[in-house]
Amino acid sequence: MLDARNRVLYVGKARDLQARVSAYTRPKGHSKRIERMIRETASMMFLTTRTETEALLLEQNLIKQLKPRYNVLLRDDKSFPNILITKDHTFPQIRKHRGARRDRGSYYGPFASAGAVNRTLNHLQKIFLLRNCPDSTFESRTRPCLLHQIKRCSAPCVDRISKADYSALVHDAERFLQGKTTDIQAQLAEEMRKASESLEFERAASIRDRIHALTQVQGAQGINPRHVPEADVIAIHMEGGEACVQVFFIRAHQNWGNRDYFPRLGGAESPAEALQAFIGQFYANKPPPRQLILSDRIEDTILMEEALSGKAGRRVTITVPRRGEKLELVTGALRNARESLARRMADTATQTRLLKGIADAFGLESPPVRIEVYDNSHIQGSNAVGGMIVSGPEGFVRSQYRRFKIKDPALSSGDDFGMMREVLGRRFRRLLKDDPDRGDAAWPDLLLIDGGSGQVSAAHGIMSELGVSDIPVVGVAKGVNRNAGREEFHRVGERPMALGHNDPVLYFIQRLRDEAHRFAIGAHRQTRARGIGTTSLDEIPGVGAARKRALLQHFGSAKAVSRADLADLRAVDGISGNLAETIYAFFR
Question: Where does 113-270 have alpha helices with state H?
């Protein structure tokens, strides 16, 4: 369904298209959400698929791509980390992996967070002594590293362990990640007994420490299910027009963490409808487990099983338990979902009060829905970067953050006013180009600038040039002695003002300013780090990494290369006569 400007309002599938569309033509019986959607709909597009399963997959792909206003949307869908044991080296490496599974090896996951992976890797290093160094470091070692000294690595890089023994450790680690910890513990106990009988007390003590580490892991995993080897436990709690979906990852009889999600609802969805939409989008870019354990039955269980099974290349089942261990897992996930949603709603209420306080403090007509905060970062004008952060009723919107590399060569060193003009000019020219009618939510209601009257005047000037004069601009300047808590606020045509020392709105603005400062400094440091290894030689056609290295080794610096005469350039290994002339001409 499309509005008058051809923006997608809603994407849905139907086995009987005529009946589905006809239902929307009834004058009564619709929820407020559906009434609003029908009122905004100006045209419709239809896509026909061969099977209903294909229609389900296409529906979820289009929702993720187009983000229609009246669909349930999964807003935070980052990839999950895994543990990778590589298989392209004589002595495999164990490490954290995130993203596409392109490297050859065995993957175990997903884990709910990087912290969960790091804790598991820490235990694995203590128990199985596998290396985690990259291949380049492995090949260059001449003596054991610190990890070997603290008994976290068996030091295969300097032949402190044979290939067969290391392969046995890798095999045990894989069995551990598959949930076969009991067998490993019995095997280690037997090895410790034999070492003691052979009077190899140091080796026996080392094995004892590994058994102790394994016991600690098993003790910490007391909540692990005994009869569920692999599943995702998904529970939804809805309240006050909002929803929280809690996902627990069960792999190899182990609980590998949980993550909560807060999908955006269209307005009047049932738990079954919201859960089905979540599942379809959640597994669009990640492999599903063998089983999904749900808190509520979804509308098209068989259809969703077919879609997920086709994606995984094996059978995937969906169940809503009524008793036993699976019900206990769902109950725990549901409790977490309820508590997470309560915390979020409390945070949202606080945020709403703060936004209203900002409106009152600066005389805005209504609380701002989107606040953009700008800051610049540079060192005497070098590697200058502008940063923009976004905040709204739900807190920081990190997916909307933007960085601007300052491009204008005419700006003098450290011209903060000029940098602010460039950043805001680029930002609002893009907005005017993409959405001249201001129908998009990307338009801000308030701009906060890190600076005083000069920065505010620069911002107001460029926005007036672009014809955008109705967005309030407030400068946040450090007060007396640049003390936090004594900030002054500058606006065009008005005297500077201050807020009370203990005013919650002041603390809120400080957090916004500090977040913009943090983001801008981080962007500046990244730009500076990338530029450390660059020289003017990088701009010369035909000079790649090897020839650049040869020139620097021969002359000592890029400046010396720029001063060299033609004969000296020709004397460098790998530099032909023609390339020497190109380099000579480039610097002249």
Answer: 114-128, 135-140, 146-149, 163-177, 181-197, 201-220
